[in-house]
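User: Some background: our group keeps a shared notebook of sequences we're curious about, and every so often someone picks one and asks for a predicted structure to add to the entry. Today it's my turn. The entry only has the sequence so far, pasted here. Could you supply the structure so I can complete it?
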Amino acid sequence: MSAHDLRSLLDGVPDTWEIVLRRDRGWSPVLHAWRDAAEEAAAAFAYWSTRPGDVIAYAAYRAAQDREDAAQDAVAQTQTSLTSVS
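Assistant: Of course. Here's the predicted structure to add to the notebook entry:
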C-alpha cells in the first residue's frame, strides 16, 4: 500500500466527534483530553521514528496527531468561550 493510498483511505474515515478520556475528571476534561492525545501522539511518533517506511506505524502516528489537533482546537474553543464577553 502506498502512502497516497493510505492517506486516501484515512481521509475517507468519518469523524465521530467523540473524545475518549483516560484520566479522572477534574476541573477541565477538555484539557485532560488534549494532554492524553498529546501523550499518545508523542508515543506514536517515537514508535514510527524507529521504523522508517512502516506505513502502519505512520498511519497510527497521523491518527494520533489528528486527535491531538482536534483536542487542541477544543481547548482553544473552550478558552475562547470562557473569556468572551456577551
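Suggested note for the entry: Residues 6 and 12 are 10 Å apart (CA to CA). DSSP finds three helices and no strands in the chain.
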